[in-house]
Task: structure prediction
Amino acid sequence: MRHGGSMGRMGSGGKGGNPKEGRYYRSRAPMKTLKRLLKVMHEYRFRILLVVILNITSSLATVGNTYMLRPVINDYILPLVGKQSPDLSSFIGILAVMAGLAILAASCSFAAARIMIYVSSGTMKKIRTDLFSHVQKLPVSYFDSKQHGEIMSHFTNDTDTLRELISNALPNLISSVISITGVIVMMILLSWQLFLLVMVHMTLILFIIRTVGSRSSLFFRKNQGELAALNGYIEEMIEGQKVVKVFSYEEEAKARFDAMTENLYHVASKANLYAIVVMPILGNLSYLHYTLTAVFGAYLTIHGILDIGTIGAFLQYTRTFTQPINQISQQINTILMALAGAERIFDLLDEPIEIDEGKIRLVHAEYDANNQLVETSCDRGFCAWKEVKEGEVQLTKLDGDVRFNNVSFSYVPGQLVLDDISLYARNNQKIAFVGSTGAGKTTIVNLINRFYEITEGEITYDGINIQDIKKGDLRNSISMVLQDTHLFTDTVMENIRYGNLDATDEEVIQAAKLANADSFIRHLPNGYQYMITADGENLSQGQRQLLAIARAAVKNPEVLILDEATSSVDTRTEALIEKGMDQLMDNRTVFVIAHRLSTVRNSDAILVLEHGKIIERGNHEALLEMKGRYYQLYTGIFELS
Result:
């Protein structure tokens, strides 16, 4: 990047260091996933502790309130039976105590719920922030293998299930466990004989939950995966609606959608079936347990082993014991779905980030009185590579000299895309790549940006191995115009400024003029403040391409890459672009990929590629004289495909 370009972002891309940075411990099992989620919530540990205390208080108040039935029945109700004018003052007093305990339990539950809403919102913010930050660090190869809708599903469906878990299911689970623990203790104190029935009931419950829950968890994981795939397909179809309609693909699209929704239907049905069936089973077991407890308790009371108050309190504890278990069974659906979503989120966070071991940085420099390069401030001088070796600083002027030395590359091991490529490009040289689709043209320019790592050989930039250069600094010195433009929902001004966030309005306008985009921009409503929507759907293809070129121009790069930059525009617009390009390419290293051979005639060198090899090289005239593949392409004997 040249003087006047953005230095504020140098080194910001491709964060190096440990590839595990910012990751959580990998886990697949539900309990381990839950523990991992609690690690994410670590900053809210004191609030969570307060919620636990509030839930304990609420549960103890409820348990204590239930125990009060024993003295109420034995000491207040039974002694008053048959009296003509009973004294109810003490009875009213104990009822007031019970009412106070009920109010305390309700207040603590309400406060705990409010706190958990805050905790869940904060946790969702942290998870989404971590996800988005991690996605920015992933290599390009990851996005090549994933649908955008599937990635988006992590930010929407999976995080939504987690919100329900944290704000609702998890607090209910904690409260239920505390309640069950308190109730069990009180049951044992009241009657160990009746508690034997409880033990049988608990054994059946745990067996059912474990058996059904394991099956349900499996299908909930499948459910989240099917939902992500469906989201990806929907996004593809919406983005490609013009193609769908042009080729009358509607019926086939509907058929594929129906098949995917059918799969989701079956998986979701099985997941919810296993989760929902637990509640009626446990509910009926609780009724059976209550009946058996009443019968056995009556038997013990008749034989003088227990009193009526104890039986009354124990029966109420039986209902209290069953209620949290029913709550847990009702939350199984939410918990299992949320844990499945959490596993998918953690899987994404576990994806290896783009490794950057480069140490050479891009800085501003100038020559001192002794004609030696020295580092200077951002508003002075030109750009240079800064390397620190054994405590000594070495500066190399950024010149744009790019060389490939015996480079081979394969996306899939054993399937070479580039085979022993060697080439060089100096400052103020224009190098063109031509060849059939799949010959490796775009792969070469992607390797310059280090979107992928080479298999063999070496790529140097100003004599420096690009693997030694920080990726962010390397990419800051390169600008790229793609065939498929991408514009953001923002003004024309900000879309151009995206190439250099520090650019002034005047620099943006100058870049637009350089790309011959200024004229059409000023004819738009509000000019440079015109709002672009839906990836530039409110502009023509040619206008979008001109804005992409203006974005590249405002970056003021040392190396410029044009990947089919004019293939989507008409001849008149192409002429306008080429006129601006002549100025933009001046005193820069330029790589051009083009199917229209008329656009590469003035290149300093034209490289013809086939099957990952350079089969011809030379300028336009020399290649025509050779009467080889380029001659055949240019004269139409052999057409590019």
About this structure: The first helix runs from residue 30 to 40. The radius of gyration is 36 Å.
